[in-house]
Amino acid sequence: MFVIFALADTFFSNIFPIISYGTIMKTIEKIDELKKVIAALKSQSKRIGFVPTMGALHPGHLSLVDRSRNENDITIVSVFVNPIQFNDPNDLRNYPRDIKKDLALLQSHACDIVFHPGVSEMYPEPDRRSFNLNKLDKIMEGKSRAGHFNGVAIVVTKLFEMVNPDKAYFGEKDFQQLTIIKYLVNQLHIAVKIIGCPIIREKDGLAMSSRNALLNPDERKLARIIPETLFEAQKIHRQYSVKDLTNWVKNRINGIKGVQLDYFEIVRSTDLQPVISWDEKDEKIGCVAVKIGKVRLIDNVKFNA
Ligand code: AMP
After folding, report:
1. Could you report the per-residue pLDDT of 79-101, keeping only the tens digit for each?
2. Which atom, in ligand 1's list, is nearest to the CA of 209?
3. CA 156 to CA 80: how far, in whole Å?
4. pTM of the prediction?
5. Which of 73, 196, 200, 206 could form a disulfide linkage to 46, CB 3.0–4.6 angstroms apart?
6. pLDDT tens, position by position, 226-239
7. What does the alpha-carbon distance between residue 148 and residue 270 come to, in Å, rounded to a whole number?
8. pLDDT at 260 over 80
9. Residues with CB under 6 A from ligand 1
10. Hey, which of 174, 296, 299 would you mutate to test ligand 1's pocket, going by the most ligand atoms within 8 Å of its Cβ?
């Protein structure tokens, strides 16, 4: 079966280079090849949707792929565990990887092209650029993960330059990252529309994350406290001041043995600045990071009027 598909792929790629996309997914590891393919697609005015990922795919990632497929002619997904966004070498070493499974999932979601480069392909030389992220990288995640968002900015700008997408899809699960990427694209005048997509959750409410796979069964049970607390806070928020609700969330999470709160902050969703009062008119979002065992999890919830 595989041989038939492979022959068909070669045949169609050679005879009808564009028509073959959308039928058989193409995996590309080299930047030069990717750029050639993109140039061919652009010459045919194809609208390109792009979903950057670090693999270990789950339905959260796949929701981005589905959205891109619905809104574009061609969907490109990158699978690359970006070493320079990890501030903790153990976190990088333990990060789950399963490219075979990822490719099967992407094929089943009708992804057109997977870009799966090696580290030396992406970084033949160290990339020492330092981005001004308007201090958005110094708060919340940035406080515990020095250099993380600069590493994200480097890889995302590199990928945007290679893929040249019309639209790029990011999850609201990583809300701070989404805000920073919108800022970056605006600041650097990169012609891509950034689309934020809602958080996909497990049945018990836990936000899907590649890192959930690293939780042991007891830790996985404990992790429920995160969505439970956030949704409860969302329900009762008007009974408290912003400050008191913040403390309520912190105390509730800190009260659970085995769960260690890193931060909980209620900020404006536009610029991540602290919210003082519910009466402010900007959309408000409560962002949390906790550590359970060795696994760090993040989540957020919106507080709408
Ligand atoms: P990652 O592979 O963790 O870098 O994630 C790749 C993209 O998928 C990012 O834009 C994430 O925000 C997004 N993503 C991860 N988990 C979820 C989720 N549960 N729901 C929606 N998007 C997600």
Report:
1. 999 999 999 999 999 999 999 99
2. 16
3. 11
4. 0.92
5. 73
6. 999 999 999 999 99
7. 20
8. yes
9. 53-54, 60-61, 63-64, 170-171, 173-174, 197, 199-200, 207-210
10. 174
| Distance separating alpha carbons of residues 286 and 230, to the nearest angstrom | 8
CB atoms within 10 A of CB 177: 22
Q: How far apart are CA 213 and CA 216, in angstroms?
A: 8
Q: Which of 46, 40, 8 is nearest to 24 (CA)?
A: 8
The yes-or-no answer on residue 61 being catalytic is: yes
